[in-house]
Amino acid sequence: MKTPRRRRRLNAVALVTNISTNLRNCRTIIFVPGDFTPWGTNEWDEHVQRLLKRRYKDGSYQQIPAETHGDCGLEGFSSDGNAYQCYSAQNWANARQLYEKQRGKITDDIGKFLANEKALTGIFGGVKIKRWKLVVPCWMNKDLIKHAKTKERFVQKAKPKYITEDFEILIVTGDDFAVEKQELASVGIYGFDVGPATIPDESLDEWLRKSSNLALVSNLTRKVNIIGASKPKRFTERFRARVAKNFISGSVVLDRLEKELPDTYKRVLELKQQKEDDLDTETVTHSVVPADFFDQTLKSFQAQLSATPGLTTRAAAALANEAVADWLLRCPLDFEDSNG
C-alpha cells in the first residue's frame, strides 16, 4: 500500500533527526549561519556584487573599485545608507580560526573606514551611512557580534561626517539575499552549490547497528542485500552506509536549498515527486536486474536535476543521491527478492 505523502515526509524527517542527534558534525552543518560552500576571495566578491546590483535595480548602489579609489574599508554603498564589505576567509580549519580572521577583517576595515574620512566624504556626497555590513559566506561564533558592537561604538564616538547617529555594524551572509539569488539562479547566472558533508564512519556504523530494528533501516538493509546479492557482505555493508550518508547529507542540502532558493527547491520537490510516482509503475514492470535498475534510476534523475536552472552539477548529484536513498529507505524504489 502506498504510504500517504505527509506520513512519508514525517518518516524521513524523523530519521534525519534521529541520526543528526547522534552525529554532532551533522548538527554543526545545519545550524551555522550561512553555508560552507568554498569561495575564493575574488569569486565571493564578484558574487556579492551581482547580488547587490540585483537588489538595487534602480541604480542606487555604487560599487567602489579598490583600484580606483584605494581600499577605504568598503566595496560599495547605496543611497539608503547601507555600506558593504565582502569577505571570504581563506585557509581556516575550525570555528576559532574563522572567528579570528573575521574579527581581524572588521578591525582592519573599520580602521580604514575612519582613516579615509576625506576620501569617503567625497565619495558618499550627501549620503549618510547608517549600516556597515560585512558580507561573509558563513560565521560560527557569537563573539563576532560582540566585537562588531565594540567597533560600532568606536565609530559612533569618532563621529565622522558621513555616518548617522544610530550607525550600526552588522554581519550578514548570502541568506540575506535569498530573493536576489533566486532571480540570478532563474536566469542561469547563479548556481546553488554544496561542499562535502563530513559524517564519521564510526558514528554512522554504530547508529546503523543500534537502529537495525527500525522499519526504514530494516527496509534499506533488505533492498541493499538484493542489489548486492552477488557481492560479499563487506561490500553490501559499505553500500548501505553510503546510502545512509547520502540521505543524511542530501537532507542537509535540501534544507539549505529551501532557505537559499525556495523556487528551485519547489521545482526539485516536484521533479522528485513525479519520479517517485513513476517508480510505482517502473518497479513492477522493469525487467532489468536490481543493480542496473538502481543505477538507471540514479542517472536519469541526476540528468533531470542537472537541467534545472539554479543547480550546479555537484548539487544535482547530491540531491539525486538523496532522492534515491530516500526511495530505498521507503518503498518507491523496491525490488523483488528472487529467493523470497
Which key terms come to mind for this protein?
Trna Endonuclease, Chain: A, domain 1, five-stranded mixed β-sheet, 14 helices, elongated, 340 residues, disordered N terminus, alpha/beta
Proportion of residues in β-strands:
5-15%
Mean pLDDT: 83
Shape: elongated
Count of strand segments: 5
Helix content: 55-70%
H-E string: HHHEHEEHHEHEHHHHHHH
Q: Could you list the spans in which at least 5 consecutive residues all have pLDDT below 50?
A: 1-13, 20-30
Outline the biggest β-sheet. 5 strands, mixed
Structure explained in plain terms:
Helices cover 61% and strands 8% of the residues. The protein folds into two domains: 5-33 and 196-329, no CATH class; 41-172, Trna Endonuclease, Chain: A, domain 1 (3-Layer(aba) Sandwich), CATH 3.40.1350. It has a five-stranded mixed sheet with strand order 1-2-3-4-5. It is elongated, with a radius of gyration of 25 Å. It starts with a helix and ends in an 11-residue tail after the last helix. The chain is α/β, with parallel strands linked by helices and 340 residues long. The chain has 14 helices and five strands.
